[in-house]
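FW: tagging you since you asked about this chain on Friday. Here's the raw sequence from the shared folder, copied in full. Didn't touch anything.
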Amino acid sequence: METAAPPDLSHRPVGAVALFHSIHVFVSGLFVWLMLWRILPASWQQQVALYPLLAVLAAMSAASIEYVWYALVTHINASRGLAANETLSFGLRPAHFVLLTSVGLSIMIGVRRITPSLWLRQRIFGNAGVRASGVGAIFRQIV
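HL: got it, structure written out here
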């Protein structure tokens, strides 16, 4: 009776490297979104309608960062990675997560800008029936 060969564990570090790469591209895309927002003039930063455009640009930048990584560092066909970013059939890629996250941030910022006083009141004082204590009570005295 033959015994089975021991499993080959040499492929396990590849998963960790792939996860690290995905997180790196995701964070780089969010950094691009933040830097694009920072270079806008102050009057434009108040325009919530520009945030979805920043989201698309940040996602395209994340895909570009991944393309450059594959082309320069790994020396594999970078067009395949770019093609994977253009479809959802291979699952969500880091550029897709950048797009979803930055669109979500845009929606949150837009909602907060529409109702800033209500958001601030609920954030500091909680429900109307609950008496605020600590920092909330001090803030209420100041305001």
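FW: The chain has one domain: 15-115.
HL: agreed, and The CA atoms of residues 109 and 116 lie 10 Å apart.
FW: great, closing this out.
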